[in-house]
Design goal:
Elements (H helix, E strand, L loop, with lengths): L4 H9 L6 E4 L5 H8 L6 E5 L2 H13 L6 E5 L12 E7 L1 H10 L9 E6 L3 H10 L3 E9 L3 E8 L8 H6 L9 H18 L7 H27 L1
Parallel strand pairs: 1-2, 1-4, 2-3, 4-5
Antiparallel strand pairs: 5-7, 6-7
Helix pairs in contact: 1-2, 7-8
């Protein structure tokens, strides 16, 4: 099964041998790929709504993987199977993802890894991780008609992340797409600022973000030039 770039990036973050819960599994493409390629011994394909879960169940049956993928009608991460060690939450808004994480703190255990992809405002996700003193262990950046940031964290203690780390990530600077991503973010921000009244309460915050992006762009450009000269 050919995965989209976004799903492939999620797939590549799942640790081999982990039992995984795919929250908001859609058509179960990720769940199926994880089993077909022997990344996971078992996957729980979870969704809140009956119709999407039915589509996932049909895809699982068509792939003849019903013995290794369990469809679950459930609200977020409530009452996960004890053997689940990796949780994927992807393809939704940041507020929904944070609600899923916050509503069931008992499932946020040290031995579990959380792989999160929200469609916008990833800084809010990193801010939440920072406030809870969790540890970001991996990140990825994908372009597929849109830039997607993927954040992988564990519930192990870490000091608070600074403002730049929350906004631009801890590891994204090493991604080949990072400079292109920053330019896209800058263009979007300048478009908003051009239409925003000077007295708007958000303007000062957005101007600060613009300066931070320009700083990151300068650093990324300097790094690229340095690498080219080596």
């Amino acid at each position: 099964m050919a995965l989209s770039k976004r799903l492939l990036a999620l797939y590549q973050m799942v640790e081999r041998g982990s039992v995984t819960a795919d929250i908001g599994c859609d058509h179960a493409q990720l769940s199926i790929a994880l089993i077909q390629n022997d990344i996971c011994p078992h996957v729980y394909a979870c969704d809140l709504r009956e119709q999407p879960l039915q589509r996932a169940t049909e895809a699982i049956q068509a792939a003849q993987l019903q013995n290794r993928i369990t469809p679950c009608l459930k609200n977020g991460i409530a009452q996960l199977a004890p053997e689940v060690s990796t949780i994927v939450i992807a393809g939704m808004g940041v507020e929904t993802a944070l609600m899923i994480l916050s509503d069931h703190p008992e499932e946020l255990q040290e031995q579990r890894t959380f792989i999160i992809q929200v469609n916008r405002h990833v800084d809010k996700l990193r801010s939440w991780i920072s406030k809870h003193h969790y540890t970001i262990v991996k990140e990825a950046l994908v372009e597929e008609d849109h830039f997607y940031e993927i954040v992988c964290f564990r519930c192990q203690y870490h000091g608070a992340y600074n403002e730049e780390e929350q906004l631009f990530g801890v590891y994204l600077k090493n991604e080949p797409l990072f400079e292109r991503y920053l330019k896209h973010q800058l263009a979007q921000l300048e478009l908003i600022l051009a239409q925003l009244p000077c007295e708007h309460p958000r303007r000062m915050h957005m101007e600060r973000q613009r300066q931070m992006i320009l700083k990151q762009l300068n650093q990324a450009h300097t790094k690229t030039v340095f690498n080219e000269e080596l």
